[in-house]
Design goal:
about 240 residues; binds D-malate; single chain; alpha/beta; four-stranded parallel beta sheet; ComB-like_sf
């Protein structure tokens, strides 16, 4: 059963919890791992990121920081998935802190299985869910500073719709709450024009003002990357071995 829960720190964890930040943290994390990063370490706090990344020599680490869509001074990278090239990522650990996405991952980190999903790796997420069939799944959209985001919601809908098709069951059998019904409806309406939806999204507009159209195009493409970021230990994501 799929929920998009209102999370409180005391809530029990789901069997599987999925964080979505299509623009752009989970798209960036998936790309970094697909490009050969050994692991991605997520932080909400920049000072902690700087401190903990000191444990690795500079040639083994990269620091990525984003606030308000822009790169944080002193970091190697901002939060563009397009910067995550194999040349930069291979054999390195990426330490990343973003405005909302890394916080969403931290909120669900107590679940036994934690995944990072985006439109680009939707199929890899669905493959995992179809194979493992966890009883309860939380899908948590990062949103923007606590508010709803179109791009994360449409991705949640894309995941659940595809799971239903692959398992041959009705959506009613899978849907746990009203938010999920809305997510599926949004996906059904926009599935052939996901980039068009990004233009309506408030964070899409923010990124366009920051000259990031190529990021929007990349993040709006569906099933282009066969990689599943999975939490190995609290705060650390690695590529799930298929
Ligand atoms: C976030 O965490 O809020 C986003 O990933 C922001 C961004 O686009 O860099």
């Amino acid at each position: 059963v799929f929920h998009t829960p209102e999370l409180t720190p005391t809530q029990n964890a789901a069997d599987c919890a999925i964080a979505i930040d299509v623009l752009r943290a989970t798209s960036t994390i998936a790309t970094a791992l697909s490009s050969g990063a050994d692991a991605v370490h997520v932080f909400s706090d920049m000072d902690k990121l700087m401190h903990q990344s000191e444990a690795l020599p500079p040639e083994k680490r990269l620091r990525a920081g984003e606030r308000g869509g822009s790169k944080v001074e002193g970091c190697d990278l901002g939060n563009s998935p397009l910067d995550c090239t194999p040349e930069l990522m291979t054999g390195r650990h990426l330490f990343i802190s973003t405005t909302n996405g890394t916080r969403a991952l931290q909120k669900i980190q107590a679940s036994p299985t934690v995944l990072a999903a985006a439109l680009i790796n939707r199929k890899a997420v669905v493959d995992y869910l179809v194979e493992h069939q966890p009883e309860t799944v939380w899908i948590v959209g990062a949103g923007w500073e606590g508010s709803f985001a179109l791009e994360d919601t449409v991705c949640a809908g894309a995941i659940v719709q595809s799971v239903a098709e692959r398992l041959g069951c009705s959506l009613e059998e899978l849907i746990g709450n009203d938010e999920m019904v809305g997510a599926i409806s949004l996906y059904q309406q926009w599935k052939s024009n996901l980039l068009g939806l990004m233009y309506h999204a408030s964070h899409g507009k923010r990124l366009l003002r920051l000259d990031c159209l190529e990021d929007l195009k990349y993040c709006a493409s569906l099933d282009t990357l066969n990689v599943l970021p999975i939490q190995r230990e609290i705060g650390t994501l690695v590529k799930h071995a298929v």
